[in-house]
Amino acid sequence: MKEFKNEIPIFFTIDDNYAPFLAVALNSAIKNSNPNRYYHAIILHQGLNEVNIIKLEALERSNFRIELVPMRDNFLALEDKMENRLRCDYFTLTIYFRLFIPNMFLEYDKGIYIDSDVVLTRDIADLFDIDIKDNYIGACHDLSIADCSDLVKYTEKAVGVNGWEYINSGVLLMNMKKMREDRFEEHFLDLLNKYHFDSIAPDQDYINAICNGKIHYLDPRWDAMPNDRREPFSDPYLVHYNLFNKPWCYSGVQYEDEFWKYALDSGYYHEIKKYKDNYPIEAIEKDKACMDLLIQRGLEIIQSEVTFKNLHEAGVRIRL
């Protein structure tokens, strides 16, 4: 694949509430970067305030460019390119924003998408350099799903993907050129507009259903999640504080030391510390209930007639 100006493009998305945690992620990526490589963090955002813009841009380094891009502007441009096939409203589409990255940024043949609740402990160039061959994406098994039998039942009976093939979409190495060539976004929009599949992880379930069989499975250390059911990796490459295991909310979270190490000089340390110290009991109770609700919703969806699995078995083209 040909890279645009030898850049390593890394895509994020945030709003004001997540700016502090993105700063930690960016700081960790910068600290572990190779001074001989050139990185380009492209941050799609929804109306960041001026203070957050200044603080995030202050993290930029000579080999690590940080560009803040309003998400709405890109969706409007994309809509024109796609001849008004975006029939959903803007706020619905933002749920699926990472699926549109290949068509939003035509200058790149390959790129990385990462959620903002992460820290890097290794050079992200090592992830970018992985050859995923003719697959659409490189990603890791979602071990938080694989360790919950009810959620595995959901992935197999609703999404139609084996529990150990189901990937987490928080870390994606994207073959953007192939996704464009095979009209990935057009296929996704056709499914979305026609069926509006109910799901517990909207963008992630579409990615799994569409890409299954064309996924390169990465070393799980590229998406190491805190998980009390498993021993932590001794050498994670990327830590993903997925679901409710957030060190800025709770103490005793696996890999929390990595987060606070990079939070210290992120520009937001005191703000993050104050947030944790004042995390309300109502939020704690809500977090406890959310996982049960997630499982309950997944088991309900299994009973629906309109699932990825049912339509796939009925002959509808789901996978590319």
Characterization of the model:
This protein is of the alpha/beta class and 320 residues long. The protein has one domain (4-313): Alpha-Beta Complex (Spore Coat Polysaccharide Biosynthesis Protein SpsA, Chain A). The protein contains 15 helices and nine strands. It has a seven-stranded mixed β-sheet, with helices on both faces. Strands 5-9 form a two-stranded antiparallel sheet. Helix 8 (149-159) packs across helix 14. The radius of gyration is 19 Å and the shape is globular. The two termini are 21 Å apart.
Number of contiguous helices? 15
Radius of gyration of CA atoms, rounded to a whole number: 19 Å
The counted number of beta strands is 9
Mean pLDDT: 91
Uncertain segments of ≥5 residues (pLDDT<50)?
Answer: 80-87
The major sheet is characterized as: 7 strands, mixed
What name is given to the CATH topology? Spore Coat Polysaccharide Biosynthesis Protein SpsA, Chain A
Summarize the helix and strand pattern as letters. EHEHEHHHEEHEHHEHHHEEHHHH
Strand order of the largest sheet: 3-2-1-4-7-6-8
Instruction: Categorize the overall geometry.
Output: globular
Q: Roughly what fraction of the amino acids lie in strands?
A: 15-25%
End-to-end separation:
21 Å
Task: Provide the CATH top-level class.
Answer: Alpha Beta
Query: Considering DSSP H and I runs of 4 or more, what fraction of the residues is helical?
Result: 40-55%
Pairing-aware structural class of the strands and helices?
Answer: alpha/beta
The tally of domains stands at 1
**Any guess at the CATH architecture?**
Alpha-Beta Complex
CATH superfamily: Spore Coat Polysaccharide Biosynthesis Protein SpsA, Chain A
